Amino acid sequence: MQLVVGRIGRAHGIRGDVSVEVRTDEPELRLGPGAVLLTDPASAGPLTVESGRVHSGRLLLRFAGVKDRNAAEALRGTLLISEVDPEERPEDPEEYYDHQLIGLDVVLLDGTPVGELTEVVHLPYQDLLTVRKADGTEVLVPFVTQIVPTIDLENQRAVITPPAGLIDPDQAEVVGTASEEPEESE
């Protein structure tokens, strides 16, 4: 199974280093020295990680054979793909690979069916689960413990406890009302 683990950004310096937008919770394993990565577009790779370091909060990698800024800049926008055994699981029991989650049945705490998990959306500060309901509409569910307390891979289901209105907007609770327009003072 192939997983996207990063995206190459701008060249850094003149020796072939590139910044990398990390898309894995295990960068030291997937993007460490010696790692061989497939690429999208395929014509850019495969790439072998020669060295890596963190600079100003960004991961910088150098790939074998990429020796100057021009070669590094030519890789900009390339996706880095790692080959992963489909049975492999992250070390942390609270983490999951996207392919393990896609296709799970999504149910409420009481067992009421909600729909099917169709995609995991990775945002900078939080992941969202895309759930396709029986009527074909989609709902984005924040992937946080308070709302998704249970992922049961054995039974192929995700249990959610959404706040009112997340799944069905008609059930949203109105917290306050709009205040009246202020009177004009002289």
TrEMBL record:
Entry keywords, A to Z: Chaperone, Cytoplasm, Ribosome biogenesis, rRNA processing
GO biological processes: ribosomal small subunit biogenesis; rRNA processing
SUPFAM superfamilies: PRC-barrel domain, Translation proteins
InterPro entries: PRC_barrel-like_sf (IPR011033), PRC_RimM (IPR056792), RimM (IPR011961), RimM_N (IPR002676), RimM_N_sf (IPR036976), Transl_B-barrel_sf (IPR009000)
GO-annotated molecular function: ribosome binding
Cellular-component GO terms for this entry: cytoplasm; ribosome
Family as reported in the entry's similarity comment: Belongs to the RimM family.
Comment field on protein domains: The PRC barrel domain binds ribosomal protein uS19.
Functional summary from the UniProt entry: An accessory protein needed during the final step in the assembly of 30S ribosomal subunit, possibly for assembly of the head region. Essential for efficient processing of 16S rRNA. May be needed both before and after RbfA during the maturation of 16S rRNA. It has affinity for free ribosomal 30S subunits but not for 70S ribosomes.
Name of the protein in question: Ribosome maturation factor RimM
